[in-house]
Amino acid sequence: MTPTGPSMDVSTTAKRTVLISGASISGPALAYWLHRAGCAVTVVEKASTLRDGGYPIDIRGTAIEVVRRMGILPRLRDAHIDSRRCTFLDADGSQVASVNAHAVAGSVEGQDLEVRRGDLAAILYEKVRDDVEFLFNDSIDTLDQSEQGADVTFHSGRRRTFDLVVGADGMHSHTRESLFGPEERFHRYLGYCFAIFTMPNTFGLSREVMMWNTPGKAAALYAVGDNDELHAFLTFHQPEPPFDALRNPDAQRDLVATVFAGAGWEVPAMVNAMRDADDLFFDTAGQIRMPHWSSGRVALVGDAAYAPSFLTGQGSSLALAGAYMLADALATNRDHTAAFAAYERDVREFVAMNQALVDNGAARLFPTTERALEQRNTMLRDLVTMPTPTPRPAHSALTLPEFAPMP
């Protein structure tokens, strides 16, 4: 199948140079579409190599159409995890309910995809690596804008000028902070912290999730295949964000161990595994909400602009759809100010609807009270006994612009 992309006049965009900060998901996706639009694209990534592995993420709704038009849908279907069931446990480890994973996640079986984050990043990178310049082990140090362009000094000392710069550097975006101010201005904390790491699969789990809950605490073991590795999740309610722990891995481990002290089931073994894990990722569940996503020649995309939090299951899908729409706006409008305005106009409602999922019960998997936990458990038992309903996606759709076959 021939990929399709934004309608564009290559002759008007051939000399436009764009620097993208971040080589995870939205960065390479945007690089692909901007290259198709005739731009000369450079991607800078502070990590020394592409980050592989990683926890499972969802690709849903509009994002499925985006990856189809990129020509990578078959590879992502091959990487699809296809979890078969999700088993919920109470405080002592006894089973509450075992249900179809799609019913819990709000995904549409046979349409939406779930893949390892690193698999998606690798597929995107392979799609663009021969057409786009990548600068690994480097980052933007300073950025000065003028009528002629954006003058960038990199951490490595190199200096270059670009027509445009895009921050695709995640929820804790350095690009956003340097342009718009501290993250605290835009961060909406959702009351949870989480720790993610890998540990040995000594439980014989295969393509399934086991989740243990007590009020305000959850522990999950996620088997993405039949291999000997599990993704472990420890999530807990925390009224105020632990800012000190966010900057200190030892403090993160101590905090998690303290919160889960005395917990039942396999939680003590998980805490011990967390202590030894070399891939621990700790963060707060939060959103980025900004009045504007651009300033001058610089724009933001993905989590840097509108992180929805893992509670929505929409982070990667927003990143893919947002990158596509930003590229389309730049391909359609030679003037970057008009392009950035069009990007915000066309995407903001889509972002708002998906971010609102956290207010519509998306956090129900992590009840904070005994009553809420019992209500959640009753709902799960009903899913077991009731006929399977017609699938209804737990996300909002975005109408993509008309497309023409690529030359």
Characteristics of this structure?
407 residues; alpha/beta; seven-stranded mixed beta sheet; six-stranded mixed beta sheet; 14 helices; 20 strands; globular; disordered C terminus
**Can you count the beta strands?**
20
Q: What is the mean predicted local confidence, pLDDT?
A: 88
Strand line-up of the largest beta sheet = 6-5-14-15-16-13-17
What gross morphology would you assign? Answer: globular
* Biggest sheet layout: 7 strands, mixed
Helix content bin? 25-40%
Give me the secondary-structure category: alpha/beta
Task: Describe this protein's structure.
The protein is an alpha/beta fold. Helices cover 34% and strands 27% of the residues. It has 14 helices and 20 strands. The protein has helices at 10-13, 26-36, 62-70, 73-79, 101-105, 117-128, 174-180, 243-246, 249-259, 267-276, 303-306, 315-332, 336-355, 370-385; strands at 4-6, 17-21, 40-45, 56-59, 85-89, 95-100, 113-116, 133-136, 140-145, 150-154, 159-162, 164-167, 187-200, 208-214, 217-223, 229-237, 281-288, 294-295, 298-300, 403-405. The protein has a 7-stranded mixed beta sheet, with helices on both faces. Helix 2 runs parallel beside helix 12 (315-332). The chain starts with a strand and ends with a strand. Residues 7-14, 389-394 and 403-407 have low confidence and may be disordered.
